[in-house]
Specification:
This protein has 13 helices and two strands. The chain has about 270 residues and is mainly alpha-helical.
């Protein structure tokens, strides 16, 4: 399996789409770092400021990974590389797990460049940002890592099972875009239910009016999705609001998609 991973990494470094993703990480990292600095300058004094540059990576990375992996790993089927690996004597499980490990290493490489983009400001941030408590920070970083693993696992499952590269790219990118907007809607619904506040409503006569909602409890499904969806998790990690349930959701998603993808790949007809 080590030889498969090395081969993937060599190809990955030559991939233009991956190099483009590395370039995108610079404005992405700088943008979230500048956002945290802007919040500080506007009067926000919170240890959660550290969450934006450290954990904001998970906010859009699903869409970026979908684009990179669908084009990079999607070529494995199109070029007959998977069939050639099987002929060379590599086991299906080794091929699948090598792809998963490579995807995670690629994601960590993107995160490294993302951090490198704002690293020159780290000294200033240490002096001016309130120091975060160790437990929330470590939980949020661990949650970000598990969230990343879960997204890699979902991407690899589809990359190894969908043979048509054009279809794979469409399905994978649309899935991540759907999850992004679904997360925004769930977060809005959860915060509206639990925080209360004003909401614009339209009555039966078509007239607009503002209605005040008292704080309450979100429904069971909304509360679950608020813990489960990657974008909801990323937003919460950005304010260092991590819980054990969120980490467990990511770990279960990664485990289930890996097990399901591997089981289906072992039975898949490779042409």
């Amino acid at each position: 399996m080590a030889s498969l991973i090395r081969s993937h990494l060599v190809r990955l470094w030559k991939s233009r789409v991956f190099l483009l993703a590395l370039v995108i990480m610079f404005p992405y990292g700088l943008g979230l770092c500048n956002s945290a600095i802007g919040d500080l300058q506007s009067g926000v004094v919170s240890a959660g400021l550290w969450g934006q540059p450290l954990c904001g990576f998970g906010l859009l990375i699903g869409i970026i990974l979908a684009a990179v992996f669908s084009l990079f790993f999607g070529a494995e089927h199109a070029d007959g590389a998977i069939r050639n690996k099987l002929i060379a004597g590599h086991g299906r499980a080794s091929i699948y797990l090598a792809t998963l490990v490579t995807s995670l290493l690629a994601a960590l490489g993107l995160y490294g460049v993302y951090v490198l983009a704002w690293a020159p400001r780290l000294g200033w941030m240490v002096q001016n940002f309130p120091a975060p408590a160790a437990r929330p920070l470590l939980l949020s970083l661990a949650g970000t890592a598990l969230d990343l693993l879960a997204m890699c696992s979902v991407c690899v499952m589809l990359c190894m099972l969908v043979q048509r590269r054009s279809l794979l790219a469409v399905v994978l990118i649309l899935l991540m875009v759907f999850l992004f907007f679904a997360g925004i809607q769930v977060q809005d619904a959860y915060e509206t239910a639990t925080n209360g506040g004003m909401q614009l409503m339209i009555d039966e006569a078509g007239q607009q009016q503002w209605v005040f909602h008292e704080p309450g409890a979100a429904g069971a499904l909304t509360a679950f999705l608020y813990d489960f969806l990657p974008v909801c998790q990323a937003y919460r990690y950005m304010v260092l609001d991590a819980t054990g349930r969120m980490l467990a959701c990511s770990a279960v998603l990664a485990g289930l998609t890996t097990a399901l993808g591997l089981a289906l790949f072992l039975r898949k007809d490779i042409r």
